[in-house]
What we know:
- There is one protein chain.
- The protein is of the alpha/beta class and about 290 residues long.
- It has a domain at about 5-160 and about 185-210 and about 260-275: NAD(P)-binding Rossmann-like Domain (Rossmann fold).
- The chain has ten helices and 13 strands.
- It has helices at about 10-20, 35-40, 80-90, 125-145, 165-170, 190-200, 220-230, 245-250, 260-265, 275-290; strands at about 5, 25-30, 45-50, 65-70, 95-105, 115, 150-155, 155-160, 175, 185, 205-210, 235-240, 255-260.
- It has a seven-stranded parallel beta sheet with strand order 3-2-1-4-5-7-11, with helices on both faces. A two-stranded parallel ribbon has the order 6-13. Strands 8-10 form a two-stranded parallel ribbon.
Amino acid sequence: MNHLFCFGLGYCGQALADVLAQQGWKISGTTRDGGCLENLRNKHFSAYLFDAETPLPDNALDEVTHILLSIPPGELGDPVFLEHGADLAARAKNLKWVGYLSTTGVYGDRQGGWVDENSSLTPSTKRGEKRLKAETDWLSLYENAGLPVHLFRLAGIYGPGSNQLEKVAAGTARRRIKPGQVFSRIHVDDIVGMLIASMSMPDPGRAYNLCDDEAIPPQDVVTYAAQLLGVEPPEEIAFEPKDMTPMGLSFFAESKRVSNQRIKDELGYVLKYPTYREGLTALLPTIADRH
Length: 291
Ligand SMILES: NC(=O)c1ccc[n+]([C@@H]2O[C@H](COP(=O)([O-])OP(=O)(O)OC[C@H]3O[C@@H](n4cnc5c(N)ncnc54)[C@H](OP(=O)(O)O)[C@@H]3O)[C@@H](O)[C@H]2O)c1
């Protein structure tokens, strides 16, 4: 029986787990939150508390066939690699597939230029540097122990409950203008589709960019979301570093166009939502129901 273990049953992890559970897979995974633990167990997932100070019980990874790594690195590095990397390496022969969710931040700033998976890895933020270190650590277990690791470099994630329609409807959307800024996105359903495509065609050691076909200025998505909702978009405001959270600042620190040709050529993947326009249009009913 296929058995997925998600280190971090968060937004992407649960989206993947829900689809595979429907197909009869056994699902296990982690959270740091006691309330979330209960919700996961109510879905019949085997859920465990895990963080840098709370390792898994010894038998939690027995009979696991696939692993999704979706926890971002902390100050000391990737908590899963630090706590369970050696354990996973020792189980390499029993694992069919391991996927690490990384970010396109490992390419750094390209001032609007293109990157693909062969581009140099030159992160321009501390967050990007930590990601690159985590990627390198996981790849070392492929190279040294045969752990079937695949790297997935994700663009900005959106989907049900987390998208610019929600922010416009809640009055929290901002149209911050930074000339020359472009950014790539990916709908969570396409992340799930691409991960499953990779599982059916494993190629350990390979990296894939997961993004849609169109990198555009962030404010264009807000404008389109407002149009769909039939409301005025928020005022345009100039980008001001002092008004930004650290997460927002790292988002605006980099401008690039990310190629998704490899997932099309090598995994034969056809995007369900090729741009934010199809993605947001499909999400509109989820907003209309609530607002
Ligand atoms: N959001 C984006 O646009 C974006 C873009 C590119 C890449 N990414 C990366 O892609 C991955 C998946 O994204 P996502 O949106 O699915 O993330 P998410 O919803 O925040 O889920 C992350 C999961 O990791 C767990 N986690 C976080 N920090 C942890 C820690 N220090 N120790 C143990 N567990 C920890 C969380 O546990 P809890 O359940 O306790 O919260 C959660 O289950 C993340 O690594 C994210 O950084 C995100």
